[in-house]
UniProtKB/TrEMBL annotation:
Stretches assigned to the Zinc finger CGNR domain: 141-182
InterPro entries listed in its UniProt record: ABATE, ABATE_dom_sf, Znf_CGNR
Pfam families noted in UniProt: ABATE, zf-CGNR
Name of this protein: Zinc finger CGNR domain-containing protein
Source organism per UniProt: Streptomyces formicae
Coiled-coil intervals, chain numbering: none
């Protein structure tokens, strides 16, 4: 189904999963939504189904993604939030017109307008980023310990000591690297 494109890394937090569509930002970056079609696929996974997407809308999405990344990184470092990135997030949030509706089964579903579904979906993502950065949700923004990644992720572990954006990728790689370093033996260390 991904037709040769990089797979998605699916997290449980919408906003930081979205920033994760560009991974290995400090190494060989992997673009996971290289085409409008892949953005459509990604949105569908998160219950934001749209029928079509233009390259201009993909650009809008990437602008929002990089803005969320910049703001979440600053928040994790307890730095001042970059004003231009905050503006982009606020613009997407205020221009989105999605409605949350409750299904008979008690689940939330997003209803997007027929005229601007992609913008509405981006509005939902922007609003999610706002709630995360504003500290309205149980968790803490942190940066991935992998030096080639440094993704901002939302740590919802009880102890707030999660180190990697994704256990299956960054966490595993780090563990393997440490294991190999130990096997080689570090000079001057007892092992
Ligand atoms: Zn990572």
């Amino acid at each position: 189904m991904s037709a040769g494109f990089p797979d998605f890394r699916l997290g449980t937090v919408l906003a930081t999963s979205f920033t994760g569509t560009l991974s290995e930002r400090q190494g060989d970056a992997v673009e996971r939504i290289p085409t409008p079609r892949r953005l459509i696929d990604w949105l569908a996974v998160y219950g934001l189904a749209v029928d079509s997407c233009t390259t201009a809308q993909l650009d809008l999405a990437k602008e929002l993604r990089e803005s969320i990344h910049a703001v979440a990184t600053a928040a994790a470092l307890q730095d001042a939030l970059p004003a231009s990135a905050v503006q982009v997030i606020n613009d997407r949030s205020t221009q989105g017109r999605a409605s949350a509706v409750l299904t008979p089964g008690g689940e939330r579903r997003w209803q997007l307008s027929p005229t601007s579904p992609v913008e509405d979906a981006l509005g939902v993502i922007a609003a999610d980023a706002i709630s995360v950065v504003a500290g309205e949700r149980d968790g803490k923004l942190a940066l991935c310990a992998s030096p080639t990644c440094r993704a901002a992720f939302f740590d919802t572990s009880r102890s707030r000591t999660r180190r990697w954006c994704d256990m299956n990728t960054c966490g595993n790689r780090q563990k393997k690297a440490r294991f190999q370093a130990n096997r080689r033996g570090t000079p001057g260390s007892a092992g």
